[in-house]
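Dear V.,

Thank you for sending over the compound details. I've combined the ligand you provided, zinc ion, with the protein sequence from our construct and run the structure prediction for the complex. I'm sharing the raw inputs here so there's no ambiguity about protonation or stereochemistry in the SMILES, which I know was a concern on your side last time.
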Amino acid sequence: MSMKLHAPLSSRGNENKMEVDIVILGGWVLTLDNAKTTYNPGFVAIKDHYIVDAGFSTAYCASKYNPKTIIDATNCLVMPGLINTHTHAAMTLFRGYADDMPLKEWLFDHIFPAEAKHVNESLVYQGTRLAIAEMLKNGITTFCDGYFFCSAVAEAVSECGIRAVVGQGILDYPTPDTQDPSSNYTTAVKFIEKYHRFSDRVYPSIFCHSPYTCSDETLIRMKELCASAGVLFQIHLSETENEASEFEGEKNTRPTFHLKNLGILDSRTLVAHAVWLNEEEIQVLKESGAGVSHVVSSNMKLAAGVAPLPKYLETGINVGIGTDGCASNNRLDLLRDMDLTAKVHKVWSADPTVVPAFSVVEMATRRGAAAIGLGKKTGSIEKGKLADLIVLSMEAPHLAPVYDPYSHLVYCAKGSDVRDVIVNGKIVVRERQILSFDEMEVMEKVSEVSSRIKNSQIRVGESK
Ligand SMILES: [Zn+2]
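Below is the predicted structure of the protein with zinc ion bound, written out as structure tokens.
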């Protein structure tokens, strides 16, 4: 912890002060920088899109900055916004659609058919806006997505004020936005070209569904496209034991080795799930520099297994936490998934010392940002980084008393404790009210779309 107190620079009037947009004053600031610096009580100064300063709340802040807006963070934690490293945002519209069944049956008998029937540009737009409303209110300032009709995802992200890596979903099957898989490449190129410089909060990406739904040729072409455009390549990897062993039976190699041999794995690749990797595969992953999204809640709900997270942390792999889509979680509340992450590995290894609270907070912020290729831009409170921050109120009974803020974030806090959210230097949630768009309008539109989905479910039942 840095104990250096800033000396006042000037006691004169405002003419000597730096004009800034926002100062967050008086909270317990957890910077999540490399030195684990905290300031209590602290301040953060924001100008345009960036953090320009952070430190202890002393006369220094008052003497140096002339803010347009002051956020009083007394009795609050101030920290980097949470990074959701894996989701399919529009699937909020399938929340609770099919539960309590094995992954294969869930995916092939329920989710894929429902997507084929209902998913269109409008559903993706409405579902993504619902997801953004939920995520922002739960303190998520960046999410990493993979789905279809990605223009609608990008538009929703741009309008709603959140930050996102938006991955165009690719499978060698007809998908909701690409009936003929031979046009996948054109779809991907067009998407990247259109959204490359579209918004400073939208990062286009390619999301190949998995090594078992994409041919080697597809994987190679898509990775080459990502490399030439300098964008993130995403893929589901070894989510279930069956998937990994069937793949090995067919290809005579483990999925991770296969991806390595195809040239897929490098520091601009994110693998989601990564549950069934052996020691050698973990080494390959580490050497490649690829990031991992730990999708703990979805893995538990679909009984996919428990990923070797303690090994990932030990080897220094960049690993973040992902919620997955709402059909397999069914909430986009990273604070809840942080609690699950800390606990499932303790019970699984019968060792209460593994995956400690601080590591989990790092995964949900700095390490998660690095895993999705945004480590230099967001994930910590440091001068020059983008101003993506959250303020959590610590005044509720379930958060008192406070000895260790990291412990509280993992074991006590809930999404609903998030009070204010700033993305890209703009206040998008204030006192739990979304300012960047009309939440009620989103809820009304969602109600219309979900009625159509519900009615068609009933008709299927009646025709039997
Ligand atoms: Zn997924």
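A first observation: The chain has two domains: 14-80+381-434, 83-371.

Warm regards,
I. M.
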